[in-house]
Design brief:
Blueprint lengths: L2 H4 L6 H10 L4 E4 L3 H6 L6 E2 L2 H11 L7 E5 L3 H12 L5 E6 L10
Parallel strand pairs: 1-2, 1-3, 3-4
Helix pairs in contact: 4-5
Length: about 110
């Protein structure tokens, strides 16, 4: 609930949606399980489950300066993913919380 106190890289979803509309280079990393991801996702997002993030992110996103938005179901796993990504040296990352509160449309 108070993730904004822990990270200055938290972004509200309205701002994230506007940025996604205007900047096609932004990559959304969804850290939910593959089963959850199949239920609905943000268009053009990629699924890297949290338990595989550390081992897969460098292969999927080698540019550590690429702008990344991180999302999960409720916001807890995205916060954990942010800590992992920061530890690995990613510099342009934003936690956009959980897809449960995303009101800008999802795809299946």
């Amino acid at each position: 609930m108070f993730n904004f106190l822990k990270s200055s890289s938290r972004m509200n979803q309205s701002e994230a949606f506007q940025m996604l509309k205007t900047d096609p280079s932004i990559l959304v990393i969804d850290v939910r399980t593959p089963e959850e991801f199949k239920e609905g996702k943000i268009a053009k997002s990629i699924n890297i489950p949290l338990d595989q993030l550390e081992s897969l992110i460098v292969k999927k996103v080698p540019d550590k300066n690429k702008k990344l938005f991180v999302i999960c179901y409720s916001g807890s796993r995205s916060a954990a993913a942010m800590r992992i990504l920061k530890h690995l040296g990613y510099t342009n990352i934003f936690d956009i919380g959980g897809i449960a509160s995303w009101s800008y449309g999802i795809t299946r």
